[in-house]
Amino acid sequence: MSESTRIDCDIHNEIPALETLYPYLPDHWLDYCRESAFNGPDAADYPDSVPTAAREDSSPKPDLTEVQDRALKDVEIGILNCAYRVQSVRNEDLAASLAAAVNQWQVEHWLEKEPRLRASIVVPSHSPPLAAKEVDRWGDHPGFVQVILPVRAEAPYGNRRYDPIYAAAVKHDLALGIHYGGAPGHPPTPTGWPSYFIEDYANMAQVFQSQVISLVCEGAFERFPSLRVALIEGGFTWLPSLMWRIDKEWKGLRHNTPYVRRPPSEYMRTHLRFTIQPLDAPPNPLHLAQILDQCGAEDLLMYASDYPHRHDNHDILLDLLTADQREKICSANARAFYRL
Amino acid sequence: MTAQFDSTATSERGAVTKDRKNGHDAAGPVASLHQGGRYRAPQDSAIVDTDIHIYFPTNDILRSYLEPHWQDYHRTFGSRGFDGSHYPRAMPNAARHDAWPEDGTPPGSNLPLLQEQLLDRWNIEVGVLNPLVGAGEQRNLAFGAAFARATNDWQLAEWLDPDPRLRASIIVPWEDGELSAAEIDRWGSHPGFVHALLIARTKEPLGRRKYWPMYEAASRHDVPIAIHFGGAGGVPITGSGYPNHYIEDHGGMPQTFQSQVISLIFEGVFQEFPTLKFVLIEGGFAWIPPMLWRMDSAWRKLGGEVPHVTEPPSDLFRRHFWVSTQPMEEPFKPEQFRQLLGQMDMDDRLLFATDYPHWDFDAPDRAFPVPLDKDRRRKFMAENARELYKL
């Protein structure tokens, strides 16, 4: 397969500094940002200098030229996922204005300058009505293909409070992307605050698992049958174990959630897609092949480099695939999912 | 792809109608695997049950084991734990409908009924009692310690003494490392008490240093620390807030266990206590291989932050952890269960458990979704537990 048919579903474009957004802020918030102690969102969920934040010769906040030179080489289309944590700004109006500024910046500095790029709409998801407005603002712009949410939030994403966001996404035929990180104020584990970053990092897979349970068991896919969700930078090798467990739970406890009408794994297969980095792969390729087979991964995985983050080489995965499976995972699945 | 997403609504309704006609479990390929002709294992091997739940029959009996001051305290304030994680069980006391004693006392509180339904019925060689009475979740730590002492005295007097097949847990007030160490010191050399019992949702991750005095005592007596399903530590039960339903609470327990393992390994507990053993009870186990792969990958990239972790997390896990089987994940196809066992590579560490008298009880002849070879069956059903608990 030629490299040029790859679609990269996770490339990061980060805001260099709060000042970057000044040209796009309304007067009131521009004055506030200049005069107050506000320096931008308070979220240390991914320090710039940790070893995974950038490859050896990459910047943790690459500019367009670096992305063009490094990430888009041999890539047909790249999806930008900006992780600016407006959700951690308690003032919801400021958060909404920051999100609008981020999105305008993405249009002017990325989408209008590089036709291979698509972007994700940053929204103040802690205020779903304001977030829905932001989705409506950009929903018909051909450069935006998804609404991006941090995996850690104040409540799990199956909760009905988020319905306005999903209604807006569905209305504009946008995907929902759930991405590593977030700083909602409560601990990143079900048992309190760990000491080390490596624990937050390793624990993030569990938060993705909790979100899958919530989306399925709280009926989000029954309320929005066309909602489609990408799980980005959360791994995927845990999917078979989660499918088995929640299917079993549903057999015993389905009277608890009568609107979950099918085995949970069916919703997962229909509505979820997973980016391939981080692989979190077993050392034995046979075990990885088993995992791929157990969850039907050829229809669920989408190629991603997670540029500029540093990860294990993905060849262990790609080497296991037939030409047909490679084509699906490297481009066809993303093309269909993001309507490219 | 477009058609796939757009057509879900109608096809789902079709499936539901068919499903209801066929009954409770008949919902597509997943459930049908286990319908009707489900595998039943021959009872050709001994059974050690590592997860049996007992409860005080009445508050008066609990109070009769408390010191007078704490009797008054309990009468006045009852049990005061952490708010926010109340997910009403799908059935009263989370129990099997047939496990209620005739006198109306709670399931698991009546020794003759427990003997009849579990020990005699299944010819259990040894059963490990895990009383989930809430002693460790008390906000008043001194009362928690008194409650733990009372529970341990009660286990000895009313369960271990009358039935030699039973073993007990050392109940500890785990949020206080020193008080817990004192209770472990009290029972650590008693052959009837086989592990100290914690619950999965603690107030802080269990690798934190406040818990280390408890681990020091456990190491001193070579007593394993068991972490059991459940609990309420006062923080949301996911890393992303509180979900709505009991199915998410119950089905979400593997995420809690993973967080505890990650904490214990990365916070350096096993460098400080190189002989310490942990038993994970009622968390299932299919989540273990992918968690180990992720931890190893994280350690290769980010291990510089935790220089005390000097070997791959998967090696530490396989050396220091034992895991009970119930509730067992049920793969779509039988061979996937064997793949799972191969990926785990922990044949010496799986411990059979029934979870009597709870609703999700695993019967010894039906628990495993596939026939096990004789060697594995012997190990899982009894031998691994005998070795761990020195039975």
UniProtKB/TrEMBL annotation, chain A:
Keyword terms of this UniProt record: Hydrolase, Lyase
GO terms under biological process: secondary metabolic process
Region described as Disordered: 43-65
The Amidohydrolase-related domain, residue ranges: 8-340
Superkingdom assignment: Bacteria
Basic and acidic residues bias (residue ranges): 54-65
GO MF term set: carboxy-lyase activity; hydrolase activity
Annotated Gene Ontology cellular component terms: cytoplasm
Pfam families cross-referenced by the UniProt entry: Amidohydro_2
Name of the protein in question: Amidohydrolase
Originating organism: Caldilineaceae bacterium SB0664_bin_27
TrEMBL record, chain B:
Statement: the UniProt record of this protein carries the keyword Lyase: yes
Compositional bias segments (type: Basic and acidic residues): 15-24
Molecular-function annotations in GO: carboxy-lyase activity; hydrolase activity
Compositionally biased intervals (Polar residues): 1-11
UniProt record, GO biological process: secondary metabolic process
SUPFAM superfamilies assigned to the protein according to its UniProt record, in alphabetical order: Metallo-dependent hydrolases
One CC-aspect GO term: cytoplasm
Pfam families: Amidohydro_2
Domain Amidohydrolase-related: 51-391
Protein name as it appears in the record: Amidohydrolase
Organism: Caldilineaceae bacterium SB0664_bin_27
Domain of life: Bacteria
Residue span of region Disordered: 1-39
